[in-house]
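Practice problem 4.
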């Protein structure tokens, strides 16, 4: 594949799903790219979520913008990332009369957002998932799936490396290099070699997730990222083959995601000030057990394998809506609008929408340099995650 000929360079801060996808898109459009990540690849939010490849069903009633983004990107990822996904589908299950009352709204939302769906009887649902609550009243199938976080990021990064990208894990940004009102690079600490040094570039993209606010502050910029954690409980054993969602408005403990040989119950939602220091509330953990068992009673007799949390990087303003009231869509900030050139932040969104987030971000970057280079990531099949280690 030929790439555009120009001499621009870019630094991407963060090697989660968003930063990895941004690096991939930048290299396809001809940029020389360096990715810096303070930990291991996918060691932040991407590596500690419930691994759901969203169909958009969870948002199709109340947040249709996010739902449409999810189903569109779900279908694209199926084409371009065959090695990192399990396309097992999902069920939204009705257990109570309240769930049944919600069902018409859900079906209308699926139609409005173009989410493929199929209504199932209770018997049909139990035939597909025998461990479902026998009191299940109905279910709706949607094209949910599961991703493996590390493999997802490595697939983007392997393809980026094949086009010349340099990926530096365990390299923490300690400051932004500034010349006048322009960001010209980053000052980093190599945590393996215990060395500090500068990396220069024409543009720096801040894709640090819930840590994006701290990075932006290094340039005197305030970005409205609200770290919003959620508790998840990984249960021993795979007790459902498909993603099981509660057929009702989004709430705590309303999903069980099969991930390899575990079943992950998720999730709660609250705000924190520091994404690095999150205490896990015991009542949230208990609620995961209770709500998960309402859908899959077998979970009552299963021991947990792990309890974890991570902050979502949601877009919002302090003092306004919080938690589940914040949209799951994303936003790209060109900080030239605030008087700082050479610096762009991308935040919000979902792992499912990382490719779209990257497309939007790189469109902004190209515009800054007067470049008209089309995005080709919708159709570029990614290399296997395994290639990351051989390139």
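Answer key:
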């Amino acid at each position: 594949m030929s790439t555009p000929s120009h001499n621009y360079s870019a630094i991407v801060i963060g090697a989660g799903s968003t930063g990895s996808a941004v690096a991939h898109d930048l290299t396809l459009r001809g940029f020389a790219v360096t990715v810096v990540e303070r930990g291991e690849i996918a060691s932040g939010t991407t590596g500690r979520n419930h691994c759901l490849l969203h169909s958009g069903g969870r948002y199709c009633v109340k947040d249709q913008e996010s739902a449409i983004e999810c189903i569109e990107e779900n279908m694209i990822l199926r084409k371009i990332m065959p090695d990192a996904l399990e396309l097992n589908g999902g069920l939204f299950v009705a257990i109570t009369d309240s769930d049944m009352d919600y069902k018409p709204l859900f079906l209308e939302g699926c139609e409005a957002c173009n989410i493929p769906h199929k209504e199932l009887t209770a018997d049909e649902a139990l035939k597909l998932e025998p461990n479902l609550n026998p009191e299940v009243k109905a279910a709706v199938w949607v094209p949910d799936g599961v991703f493996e976080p590390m493999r997802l990021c490595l697939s983007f990064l392997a393809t980026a490396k094949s086009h010349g990208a340099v990926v530096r894990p365990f390299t923490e940004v300690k400051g932004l290099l500034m010349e006048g009102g322009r960001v010209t690079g980053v000052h980093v600490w190599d945590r393996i070699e215990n060395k500090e040094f500068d990396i220069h570039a024409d543009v720096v993209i801040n894709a640090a997730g819930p840590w994006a606010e701290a990075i932006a502050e290094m340039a005197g910029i305030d970005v409205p990222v609200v770290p919003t954690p959620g508790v998840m409980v990984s249960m021993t054993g795979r007790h459902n083959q498909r993603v099981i969602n509660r057929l009702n408005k989004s709430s705590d403990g309303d999903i069980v995601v099969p991930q390899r040989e575990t079943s992950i119950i998720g999730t709660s939602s609250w705000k924190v000030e520091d994404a690095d220091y999150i205490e896990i509330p015991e009542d949230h953990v208990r609620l995961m057990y209770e709500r998960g068992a309402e859908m899959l009673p077998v979970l009552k007799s299963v021991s947990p394998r792990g309890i974890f949390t991570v902050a979502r990087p949601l877009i919002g303003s302090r003092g306004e809506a919080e938690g589940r009231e914040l949209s799951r869509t994303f936003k790209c900030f060109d900080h030239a609008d605030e008087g700082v050139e050479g610096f762009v932040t991308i935040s919000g969104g979902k792992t499912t929408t990382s490719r779209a987030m990257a497309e939007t971000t790189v469109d902004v970057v190209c515009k800054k340099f007067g470049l008209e280079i089309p995005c080709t990531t919708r159709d570029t099949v990614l290399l296997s995650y395994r290639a990351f280690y051989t390139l």
